[in-house]
Amino acid sequence: MRTDKLGQNILSEVDIIDLIMRNPERSVKTTLVEPGVNTDNKLELDDFPNFINYVEQNISLAEFDRLNQESWLMPHEFQDLDIVQHILDLCKTDAELQRVGEELLLFQERDMLTLLKYLTYLVETMREHGIVWGVGRGSSVASYTLYLLGVHKINSMYYGLDISEFLKPLK
After folding, report:
1. Staple partner for 12: which of 34, 55, 63, 104, CB 3.0–4.6 Å?
2. Residues 8-17: tens digit of each pLDDT
3. What angle do CA 62, 66, 68 make, to 5 degrees?
4. Strand order of the sheet with strand 2-3?
5. How far apart are CA 12 and CA 102, in angstroms?
6. Is 117 exposed, middle or buried (0-12, 13-18, 19+ CB in 10 A)?
7. Alpha carbons 3 and 161: distance in angstroms, whole number
8. What percent of the chain has pLDDT over 70?
9. Is 72 exposed, middle or buried (0-12, 13-18, 19+ CB in 10 A)?
């Protein structure tokens, strides 16, 4: 296994098979595959959601980041989740629905709905495995949506925190 200039693992076909054979219950945690490795029709396991092909090493860091933000490694149930409806279903009052509606519009303007799906997956996985995470820090605690998802424990509506502290308006 090699590592590229951005610190990403590059797996050859042999590396992939070796990882699967050593631990078939665990998915391969990588985003890059060596050039020439044909993953078509070979890796149709549920353990490999969004298994993307090798990204050329001569791209810019900004382009690399953009490509990775399009391909979140999470199970299909979270990829297919209607995140807006899921979050709206977590609301109990009209005030909560109003606040979440405003926040979801801001997340959508910034093309961050997939991030919310991933955070849902991350929080659920941490809960399932008994992993403890912090109560919240920084400007993220101003988001009531993130509070509902369990990303942090600070109820921004109770404390009167304005979402603009987290998601500044686009100019």
Report:
1. 34
2. 777 777 777 7
3. 115
4. 2-3, 9-11, 32-33
5. 46
6. buried
7. 43
8. 73
9. middle
| Per-residue pLDDT at 132 exceeds 70 | yes
H/E element, 96: helix 94-109
Buried b / exposed e across 74-108, counting CB within 10 Å, b at 16+?
A: bbeebeebebeeebeeebeeeebeebbeebbebbe
Cα 104-106-111 angle, rounded to 5 deg: 90
> Residue 79 has what DSSP assignment?
H
The tens digit of pLDDT for each residue in 45-100 reads 444 444 444 445 677 878 877 777 777 878 889 999 999 999 999 999 999 999 99
* 161 token code pair: 């925190």
Confirm whether pTM is higher than 0.85: no
DSSP state of 93: S
Whether 138 shows a pLDDT value over 90: the answer reads no
